[in-house]
Write a structure and sequence with these properties.
This protein is α/β, with parallel strands linked by helices and 132 residues long. It has 3 helices and 5 strands. The termini are far apart.
């Protein structure tokens, strides 16, 4: 019985010495986790930028007109879309931009949207693909 108590005591001492007493959510950087402030002072700084999962740009053709949509917002041309993407990316976030052209959209239009997203400052611009 005594040797078993010695082993348990040594294991307990080992785990206490090697454990970290820091809060684990602050170990990895993220946009949500912030280290605790030294006091209870409330910060009046600007709020952190909203996190976007992804920006999906849908391209379609209705009544022989090109329709560019991001969510429920429609844009009259590629330049207006580029301005919108520049405003979002100026917030300091880098969500992936996914270009989703319909079947009747030419590759030239899809590449124009791709170029507008890259010119706006997007790091990752992807094309949507149909699952096989």
């Amino acid at each position: 019985m005594t040797p078993m108590i010695d082993v348990v005591f040594l294991l307990l001492v080992f785990f206490v010495w090697t454990s970290s007493f820091e809060i684990p959510e602050f170990d990895l950087p993220s946009s949500i986790a912030q280290p605790p402030a030294g006091g209870t002072e409330i910060s009046t700084d600007t709020p952190p930028p909203e996190a976007f999962d992804e920006i999906v740009v849908r391209l379609d053709r209705r009544d022989a007109q090109l329709v560019i949509e991001v969510g429920s917002q429609a844009f009259p041309d590629v330049a207006a879309l580029g301005t919108y993407l520049t405003e979002i990316l100026s917030l300091g976030v880098q969500p992936p931009v996914i270009v989703d052209p319909a079947d009747q959209i030419s590759m030239a239009v899809a590449v124009q949207v791709y170029d507008a997203a890259r010119d706006a400052g997007a790091d990752r611009v992807l094309f949507a693909a149909e699952p096989e």
